[in-house]
Amino acid sequence: MHDAIVVGAGPAGGMAARRIAAAGFRTLVLEKKRVVGEPVQCAEGVSHFGLVSNGLRPSDEWVVQGVRGARCFLPGGSSFTITDLPGYSIDRARFDRWIVQGAVDTGADLRTGTRVTGLARTDRGWRVRADGESFDARVVIGADGPTSLLGRIAGCVTSTDLIRAYEYRFPRGAVAIPEEDRFHLFVAQRYEGGYAWVFPRGDEVNVGAGGHIDAYAATMAFCRERGIDPGRRIATIAGTIPYRFDVRAYALPGFAIAGDAAGVTNPMNGAGIHPGLFTGRHAGACAAASLADEDPDVMLEYDRIVRASPFVDPVLLWAIERFRTWDDGLLDSVGAELDGRSWRDVDLPLALSVLLRKPWLVPRSRSFLRILRALDLCERYGW
Question: CATH no. for residue 286?
Fold first, then answer.
């Protein structure tokens, strides 16, 4: 009998296990991959705020390169600054292992190569089935990724909408980068609300595309447009990303879902490391409190925390759904007004000037205001 079982050894599961094990409770981490963090399924970018706000300090062990924010490029070539806040290109596999090792160092047990196949309530808590074995615990946290089995079995997640992402890693010399210390996002109607990207990564560069699209075809097309030879790739990365989950509950008595398993990924850009750290940290804290009080209902506080957080603010999904309807003409019209600026330069005089010159944008003015609010959330909490 364990005090807690955490299923999944990504950022969410690792953070949860850290909090529970540090509180002195017997914690078991089950991970289906044979090596934690591999294969990588991530563009490998995270903000400085995303780390420090969750009690983590950047480490040379997994930081590959620092960046000074991100820039967005429109179809016609104009661009604007999304954020000037600092962040990092990281080695995601090493990052995941570092987080989980922090749990192991405080007493957690880790079993890799273990695929969970079932979950059931018991008189004393929960029973997890994996590879023909049974594991009992008073608390279970499902951090088992975007296709979470546990979330569905427990009845927490009723439906999922996933997007595809595909990426090549190149040596730095194979890719022309507009600014070598920024992330670059390329938007266009053909990405259907998604985007293509160029993320510098020390001596390497990640190039890919994602959205409600054929991500492989979009990545190949983007490489052709940018004069990048796919034959020079040194790694291929692919994965699925939560877009919209219908979640009945983030927590039940003695149970919680966190990170991608809970669909807590920014729908504006697909970023999941920061929300994974946040949800894992709070799931672990609520689990530790539940175990200390010997009251499984304490876990329900986690549901309140997630619902009150900026990570699931409805404006994010609303904004990207509107953005998906914009054609390249509208994107370029907006881009022309922001070219060389930051979106934060938009103030009342600039807005009035644009509307006077382009009155056909007036009916969209309310939508623009809500999108600005979504960008504000994204700048701090969205990556």
Answer: 3.50.50.60
As given in the structure block, the two tokens for residue 281 are: 């940290």
CA 298, 292, 124 angle in degrees (round to 5)?
A: 75
Which residues, in sequence order, are bridge partners of residue 118?
129
Assess whether pLDDT exceeds 90 at residue 43.
no
Specify if 283 maps to a domain. Answer: yes
What confidence score (pLDDT) does residue 304 get? Answer: 98
Could you tell me if residue 194 is inside a domain?
no
Q: Is the pLDDT of residue 42 over 90?
A: no
Q: Are 168 and 235 in contact (CB under 8 A)?
A: yes
Rounded Cα distance, 252 and 249, in Å: 7
Residue 41 has pLDDT above 90, yes or no: no
Q: Please, where are the H alpha helices in 33-178?
A: 48-52, 92-105, 149-153
Number of compact structural domains in the chain: 1
Contact between residue 182 and residue 68 where contact means Cβ atoms under 8 Å apart: yes
pLDDT band for position 186 (50/70/90)?
A: very high
Helices (H) and strands (E) in the chain, counts: 11, 18
Q: How many CB atoms lie within 10 A of CB 356?
A: 9
- Residue 55 CA to residue 49 CA, distance in Å, equals 10
What count of other Cβ atoms lies within 10 Å of the Cβ of residue 52? 11
**Residue pLDDT, tens place only, 267-286:** 999 999 999 999 999 999 99
